[in-house]
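ok new one. same drill as before - structure tokens go in, u give me an amino acid for every spot. 160 of them this time. try not to just spam alanines like last time pls lmao
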């Protein structure tokens, strides 16, 4: 399951306007196309809002709003995707209401009704945290609920 999170990590890290090696799709040389109803840049903040769509090849991120914070030196510190966050690359999909990439903590946290799908495999949780440098993934339950995973074993037809 963490391949989808890794791809999302590449995506979120690639959204900063000053990042030289931006990528939405792993190992892609295609350009990143970001559209939204509005875009504004002021001091250390870049915001795209209203039907935001980020596309690179077959990889697509949609959300209501993206906010990118930069340090005084111009380095990326945080990126927030806010409202109806959905990432898909044709093989995996991740949905939630919010996503936060924290470059200082080196984590990506996706919250509020998180659903990850990879083929027929499905994980759901209140939140998921991915540590960029170690690859560790932790699913957190929503209040009063539990983390759930549905996994299918390979059929005999798949094993040949």
């Amino acid at each position: 399951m963490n391949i989808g999170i890794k791809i999302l990590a590449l995506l979120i890290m690639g959204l900063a306007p000053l990042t030289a090696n931006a990528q939405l799709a792993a190992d892609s040389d295609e350009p990143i196309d970001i559209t939204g109803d509005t875009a504004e840049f002021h001091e250390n903040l870049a915001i795209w809002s209203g039907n935001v769509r980020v596309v690179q090849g077959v990889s697509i991120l949609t959300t209501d709003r993206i906010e990118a914070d930069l340090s005084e030196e111009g380095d990326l510190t945080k990126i927030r995707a806010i409202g109806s966050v959905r990432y898909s690359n044709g093989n995996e999909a991740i949905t939630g209401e919010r996503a936060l990439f924290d470059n200082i903590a080196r984590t990506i946290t996706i919250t509020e009704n998180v659903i990850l799908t990879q083929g027929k495999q499905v994980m759901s949780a209140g939140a998921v945290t991915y540590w960029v440098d170690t690859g560790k993934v932790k699913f957190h339950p929503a209040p009063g609920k539990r983390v759930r995973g549905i996994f299918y074993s390979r059929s005999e037809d798949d094993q040949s």
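The chain has one domain: 2-150. and btw Confidence is low (pLDDT under 50) at residues 1-24.
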